[in-house]
């Protein structure tokens, strides 16, 4: 598959010219001639290199305010001509069409224009026509033509020029064609999604920057992450991040984003095993760790505050895989970095997608992300006894945790501390009993604690068990036809209950 081809003529039409200068100079040194339009032609000529004008080749000027520049048989004929086809060669000779061996093009910044909040007219004008057509034509004819469709491919072209001169193999050209279709499909996806305006008439996804992971969820499974992890995090040290690490990191940042006050959480297998809100970082960590000193081993630590020396000293003896924070004091970082495999991340921003996707059966499920955070004024007191202000604070605290726990889930909390949770159970009663047993095993006094449930209680058994364990207030979505039975039990046993009207299943 070597089939080497020499680049003799290049069509260059780019919106952004950063990083292009050295490539153009190298091509010029190799004897490659240039064809271009407008600003790109001026740029090439400003470097002291000759450049033919598309207008001179086509005998047509740029028209319709620049909408039509390169759309002409003398351009596309030179790109699409099959060099081994005698009929094609005869026709381009007849119509005096030059062979074009290299196309360097980028596209109007449609995505950036949408993100800027521009009006519809401005956005429409950034739908590239000529550029996308050049990309498809050159990629289709990759047997003879090299297509560079993005600035991200400049380095690959520069490497070839430095190693081989103006010669490319079929393998080279096929790779550039593949990358070109990735660019064009991603561009069209962005345009469709803008027109669709979240109606969901079709599903179009495009993600770049593939990172091959060591393996997937298990060693026998392949795993790839598509995205810009570096946009959200700076990794200060540690081993390569794995598939399961990414799942835990996502769960950790989703959970911690729910809290405004200083909070520390420890997660294991995407669920919180310890969490506390305090006025000081070290106290928040110690309270979170006390929630489950066994599960914390090998866990993921996350906080919404700056990690100080005292906290670093308190946690350093614990084996954990990852810590995530907005920043670290230098003396804290010195302590934490003593374990070289420990992954230390700075979270740059709390970006959260608005949609979630999951493949299953022969299709894809898409839903809005559960971003609702209950507030005190939204709670409906359904019992004769109203909760105290402190109980309301604890219930809202617990509700944030149960929302981010695998269903069926029950959370027991007190004094803005996670006492215990029961998660991923097939029975809500089992989830509660597991939480009660766990809280007792770790020495928590549940008298005055609150209970949060991710879904309604179909029977009063949960509130009965909770009351006997010491729970005095309950927060749940409500909506069961048997709500009255749970409410009646609470009224008879001096327990306060509030409903939110919002279920938080997580499967």
Task: Provide the fold topology.
Layout: E1 5-6, E2 9-13, H1 21-29, E3 33-36, H2 38-46, E4 52-53, H3 54-58, H4 73-80, H5 86-94, E5 102-105, H6 110-115, H7 120-125, H8 130-140, E6 146-148, H9 154-164, E7 167-168, H10 170-196, E8 210-212, E9 224-226, H11 229-232, E10 233-237, H12 243-256, E11 263-268, E12 271-277, H13 281-290, E13 299-303, H14 309-315, E14 320-325, H15 330-336, E15 343-347, E16 355-360, E17 363-368, E18 380-381, H16 389-403, E19 410-414, E20 417-422, H17 428-441, E21 450-453, H18 461-469, E22 473-476, H19 483-492, E23 496-499
Parallel strand pairs: 2-3, 2-5, 3-4, 5-6, 13-14, 14-15, 21-22, 22-23
Antiparallel strand pairs: 1-7, 8-9, 10-15, 11-12, 11-13, 16-17, 18-23, 19-20, 19-21
Helix pairs in contact: 1-9, 8-10, 13-14, 14-15, 17-18
Would you kindly provide a brief summary of this structure?
With 507 residues, the chain is an alpha/beta fold. It contains 19 helices and 23 strands.
Could you characterize what this model shows?
With 507 residues, the chain is of the alpha/beta class. Helices cover 38% and strands 20% of the residues. The protein contains 19 helices and 23 strands. The strands form six sheets. Strands 10-15-14-13-11-12 form a six-stranded mixed beta sheet, sandwiched between helices. Helix 1 runs parallel beside helix 9, helix 8 runs antiparallel to helix 10 and helix 17 (428-441) runs parallel beside helix 18 (461-469). The longest helix is centred in the middle third of the chain and has 27 residues, at 170-196. The chain is elongated and about 95 Å long. The mean pLDDT is 93.
